[in-house]
Amino acid sequence: MRQFVDGHSRHADLAEALGFSLGAGRGKILFQLRTGPLTHSQLAKLNQTTGPYVSLIVDKLEGHGLVERGPHPDDRRRKLVSLTPSGRDAIAIAEAILYRPPAAVSVLTDEELNHLIGLVQRVVDADSQR
User: Fold this and answer.
1) 53 and 110 both lie in a single domain
2) Domain count within the chain
3) pLDDT band at 129, cuts 50/70/90?
4) What is the per-residue pLDDT for 121?
């Protein structure tokens, strides 16, 4: 299973489509901003990391034009990080690549595919209960 998953990694496809490598930390934060702007401290808490590390990630995303920092409406000392239009485009590109199943999946019948989806969902549900 690991060999199959590793052999169908989408990192190279993402890097080619986006023009840069979207590391795990950058990808997580980018996707977390889909629902709206967040502060550095909110991002740090969501990712169980430190503010300085979040700043490094946001700096890189900002350098690629995917996010921008703006003033917080209630506290001038804090900054909100939000997606730019390019950031929304990058998410759409990433989702199209990440949600595309490997070609080998096409050998499954609809019944087999539904069974596989059910099994994977059970694993995901069990993992989320940990």
Assistant:
1) no
2) 2
3) confident
4) 93
